[in-house]
Amino acid sequence: MSQLNLVLLGPPGSGKGTQGERLQEDLELPYYATGDILRAAVREGNELGRTAKDYMDRGDLVPDEVIVAVIVERISRSEADDGFILDGYPRTRVQAEALDEEVERVGRTLTATIFIDISDEEVLRRLGGRRTCPNGHIFHVEFDAPEREGVCDLCGEPLGIRDDDKPEVIRKRLERYHTDTEPLVGYYDEHGLLHRIDGAESPDQVYASIRATLATVRMEEEA
Ligand code: AP5
Question: How far is the CA of 171 from the centre of ligand 1 (A)?
Fold first, then answer.
């Protein structure tokens, strides 16, 4: 079986993390979510975290050179020899081109970009009710409530609201998405890698659509 090198693309709150968790478990591939990596660095208070914190708190993008270095290091690890799942990267054209260069340098190709598409109204509904635990497990007060209020079903840690899920920060993140990241939909379409998924469906339906898409991509590769 050839490598599976996947990119999950979509607006804030489209479900990249929700679907990424499931894909990681089923495909047994390393899952590199730049938001999770940066939040862990902020918690640790290391250099990456100190650089990223202000940008994240105001809903801005961390500078390209910082995040490119993080991803290049991850995908060159031996654990990623069979492939990887990227969530939240790339977010700018510079990042997309850096990824292309790196996969080419190590003799690989991207398999597919899964674009999870939802409206801005849905983004606001989703992020307004999101709850997460320190280990990055994701819930929603209405759409995916935990069994015990305020407690993670998976690890028992307390659930909280992400610092950047405040209304004014959400607006800024959406703005940055439309100006910097949405153009990547066209970029990957031109490269024949884009697969659009309706993210407004239930998490199970979205997941079924992603798996069906990946099965088709695999069949086309083998044909
Ligand atoms: P990051 O953590 O990547 O944030 P994001 O892209 O804004 O995405 P989110 O994590 O908010 O949403 P998601 O799509 O994963 O949705 P989720 O599954 O949680 O980045 C944070 C910050 O880090 C950035 O703002 C930036 O500062 C920095 N950063 C990160 N990467 C960077 C990069 N490459 N370059 C520069 N800076 C970078 O779902 C959301 C909610 O909806 C949950 O409550 C969930 O339960 C619910 N839900 C999910 N799916 C469904 C469904 N189908 N139906 C109903 N509810 C659903």
Answer: 13
